[in-house]
What does this fold into?
Amino acid sequence: MKKLTILKTQNLKSYYILEVMGKKRYIQAVDGVDMEIGENEIYGIAGESGCGKTTLIKTLFSMIEPPLNVMGGKLYYKIGDEYVDIFQLSNEEMRKLRWEYVSYIPQGSMSVLNPVTKIIESFEDFIKAHKKVKKEEIRKPVEEHLNALGLPTTVLDAYPHQLSGGMRQRVTIALATVMKPKIIIADEPTTALDVVAQRGVIQLLEDIQQKQKNTIILVTHDMGVHANIADKIGIMYAGKIIEEANTIEIFENPLHPYTKYLIGSLPKMGDKSYKISAPGSPPSLYNPPSGCRFHPRCDKAMEICKKEEPKLVEIKQGHKVACFLYSKEMET
Ligand SMILES: Nc1ncnc2c1ncn2[C@@H]1O[C@H](COP(=O)(O)OP(=O)(O)O)[C@@H](O)[C@H]1O
Ligand code: SF4
Ligand SMILES: [Mg+2]
It folds into this structure.
């Protein structure tokens, strides 16, 4: 059965605008992204460092602060039966959606937990900011939530620095999901953790998704993590999604030359020696290459690739790619 779309974007563009010597510089970090993410799906966003993953998910969370600016395009969330145009909402309307409808786990769990208070106080502050409840009424449901997720309730009386990195990350995820949001957006939640801790975080995200039936958008540069958890993967390159398919299809039948580099060999989870890499280095997003942004690094590049930009098109059911090797024009 086809999943209903819960979040979609149309030609989404968000740039950092910097003033350098009185002149404006546009860093095209997200540059024309179209995506549709299904209900109850774990959608992985992959790509090298600097390709725009964090900027994309901040934009999906509508967390737009200078120097970041939305330059164009649309973002919709399905709320009830309606697709709501998120950039039209007031700050107050968006505030109400945050954490109850959509939650965002930034990279580095310490940015969510208050380092100078016990964990329970982070939960209390968080819940009181969204619901009218008395402090005494908070602990019990929080303990139930931790129990349901298999986390020890003793963490509530600890300070963040007393927990291991893996436990801190899991507590952060528990905090971000305590109000059962429909969409959870997580930025590199397993990065900087050892293999055992990575497994714990992945298992927790899977458990939450099973129990709460929500959608998870997971960003990581680690293809091993995607292989383990994602239902569908979007590969990002230089501000654009250049390939998208379900996880098995991406690993078994990668089409884009860049994706082929990424899938060269499937590493064991947590293998630190494995990094997404292709020859050369990622382009500057201030002045990206013309045509296909991957052309300076692509061993299949043709004349057209320098001049024209390939569109993301569906080559077969559920598998989209932006590359002239596959587009219709090349067949005729
Ligand atoms: N606050 C900022 N100001 C200016 N440029 C930024 C800022 N944050 C990120 N960038 C630039 O935007 C591009 C995309 O960055 P980012 O979204 O963090 O990529 P990723 O998460 O894939 O590593 C990079 O070129 C980065 O240097
Ligand atoms: S469009 Fe051209 S340069 Fe870009 S990935 Fe395809 S073959 Fe390579
Ligand atoms: Mg990032």
